[in-house]
């Protein structure tokens, strides 16, 4: 690739102003938690959660799902490839687990009970049934595709 | 940053040699995800900021400097306004999770590229921490809050509101810098043609930072990837929308606390048990204190009753519509000798965080604004606020005070 053309000075100036404005706004936003002294003890934790969200996504979640996706290459070769029939239910299971994690692992039960009068008892089983259903539908579609392919070839 | 040159920052060389394999990762696909987020995230942002306005003088966090929408008296019409804004904020926020994850996946090779020598470029890259950290922080705290999981241990309101503005800072700059790239990339391929391109004919985009130089054989077409992400969003939509519906469809929110209700009941946001109210304080000795007048429940029930279908909508995005009957707040204001109040302060028997609420003049005078004694034809249950609760059109659920002890109408 050829070297990119040097950016013109007015554009660079505008970019610099934009970056400074962005940092200034974010810094000003941070004063919301500084204004309230009762929040001061929790500021370090907020920063930990902020940075932790990025690090967990970039250095844990991404490598994990990328490695799992690589592992799909190990699936046996079939006339109708298995890869997406495994990938989709896995992604569906992972996505629903991530989004609805508190109920599934029963975290926060006392607050749930105080707010709703109910418990978190059914969520794990419901999630497992959902995963099973997604896997089942995916497998069924694969079988149908194999059958139709065989019929077409036969 | 003084004295630090970009060339001093060296990541381990192994990280630079990651072999990116995806044959469909590229600027066009990134831009499609980017366009979806560019259209939808402003809706999530504005509805979230509106929620702060809807809380009126009880907004949390209270002191946000200039970082809020212009304050205005939250309307009472239409009655479903807060149900809509907060349902959109939470619902759309959840539905966008797969798009955010896909967008991050699509640009992740950039994370592992060597830092630029140019300080401006380096600073721009630094602001991506605000963008990515901001959106992930908002998603995580939001998802935990709607499921009542306060594992983070800090104030949700303060953290989510501050995080929102940090994200907005990163988002506005990112859009300003990348909009031309997005438009150019979207024009580089035809969406219609992509939707007709099967796996067998899927080829990588032309060489670019994001396009793998030695891609693996494709296992999914670009249209397949779009369908996958859209399918993920649909799945989450299907598992979430139920928390805003009444009847049997509510149970479709299979994995959310608000998909469940006790048989024959509708949801509450605080049980009587959790309020720690002594049952004697809401028994026969209970009186409604209007300042110069004190009324028993029987006396309230003897006043003219009004019935209204009104929603209860909560900050967690769930809502429910029920049929409430009771005394109009404006009738109580007249009884208290303040027929044209400038507002009202409602106090509960309990001592919780939302034990009192300030109402505006509109919220008191609306013909459907009630001190409800009954719901769906029966006396309120203790969980729903017996002996009496406030219900006002479009008022956030937590301000529809239950177990009301006193109402002070301001002249």
UniProtKB/TrEMBL annotation, chain A:
Keywords: Membrane, Transmembrane, Transmembrane helix. It comes from the Bacteria. The chain crosses the membrane at residues 12-34, 46-67, 88-105, 125-144. This is Uncharacterized protein. It comes from Pseudonocardia dioxanivorans (strain ATCC 55486 / DSM 44775 / JCM 13855 / CB1190).
């Amino acid at each position: 690739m050829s070297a990119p053309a040097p950016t013109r000075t007015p554009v660079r100036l505008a970019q610099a102003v934009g970056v400074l404005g962005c940092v200034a706004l974010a810094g000003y936003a941070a004063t919301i938690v500084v204004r309230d002294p009762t929040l001061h003890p929790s500021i370090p934790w907020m920063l930990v959660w902020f940075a932790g969200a990025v690090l967990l996504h970039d250095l844990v979640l991404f490598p994990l799902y990328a490695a799992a996706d690589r592992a799909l290459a190990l699936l046996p070769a079939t006339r109708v490839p298995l890869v997406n029939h495994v990938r989709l239910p896995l992604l569906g299971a992972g996505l629903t687990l991530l989004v609805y994690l508190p109920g599934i692992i029963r975290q926060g039960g006392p607050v749930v009970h105080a707010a709703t009068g109910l418990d978190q008892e059914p969520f794990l089983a419901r999630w497992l049934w959902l995963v099973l259903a997604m896997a089942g539908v995916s497998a069924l579609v694969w079988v149908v595709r194999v059958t139709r392919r065989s019929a077409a070839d036969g | 940053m003084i004295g630090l040159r970009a060339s001093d920052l060296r990541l381990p060389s192994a990280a630079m040699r990651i072999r990116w394999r995806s044959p469909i990762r590229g600027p066009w696909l990134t831009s499609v995800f980017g366009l979806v987020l560019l259209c939808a995230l402003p809706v999530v942002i504005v509805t979230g900021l509106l929620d702060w306005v809807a809380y009126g003088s009880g907004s949390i966090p209270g002191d946000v400097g200039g970082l809020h929408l212009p304050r205005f008296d939250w309307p009472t019409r239409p009655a479903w306004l807060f149900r809509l804004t907060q349902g959109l904020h939470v619902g759309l926020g959840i539905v966008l999770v797969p798009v955010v994850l896909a967008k991050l996946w699509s640009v992740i090779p950039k994370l592992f590229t060597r830092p630029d020598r140019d300080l401006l470029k380096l600073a721009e890259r630094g602001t991506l921490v605000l963008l990515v950290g901001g959106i992930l922080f908002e998603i995580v705290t939001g998802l935990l809050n709607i499921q009542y999981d306060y594992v983070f241990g800090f104030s949700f309101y303060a953290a989510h509101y501050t995080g929102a503005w940090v994200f907005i800072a990163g988002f506005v700059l990112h859009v300003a810098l990348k909009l031309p790239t997005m438009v150019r990339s979207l024009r580089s391929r035809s969406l219609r043609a992509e939707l007709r391109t099967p796996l067998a004919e899927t080829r990588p985009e032309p060489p670019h930072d994001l396009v793998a130089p030695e891609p693996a054989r494709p296992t999914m077409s670009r249209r397949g990837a779009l369908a996958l992400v859209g399918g993920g969003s649909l799945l989450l939509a299907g598992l979430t929308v139920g928390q805003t519906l009444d009847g049997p469809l509510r149970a479709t929110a299979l994995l959310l606390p608000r998909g469940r209700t006790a048989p024959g009941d509708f949801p509450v946001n605080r049980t009587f048990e959790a309020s720690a109210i002594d049952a004697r304080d809401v028994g026969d000795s209970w009186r409604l204190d209007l300042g110069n007048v004190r009324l028993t429940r029987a006396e309230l029930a003897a006043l003219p009753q009004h019935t209204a279908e009104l929603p209860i909508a909560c900050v967690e995005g769930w809502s429910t519509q029920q049929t409430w009957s009771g005394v109009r707040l404006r009738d109580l204001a007249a009884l208290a000798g303040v027929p044209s109040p400038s507002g009202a302060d409602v106090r509960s028997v309990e001592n919780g965080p939302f034990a009192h609420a300030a109402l505006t003049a509109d919220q008191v005078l609306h013909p459907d604004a009630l001190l409800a004694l009954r719901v769906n034809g029966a006396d309120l249950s203790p969980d729903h606020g017996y002996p009496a609760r406030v219900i006002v059109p479009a008022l956030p659920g937590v301000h529809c005070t239950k177990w009301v002890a006193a109402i002070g109408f301001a002249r």
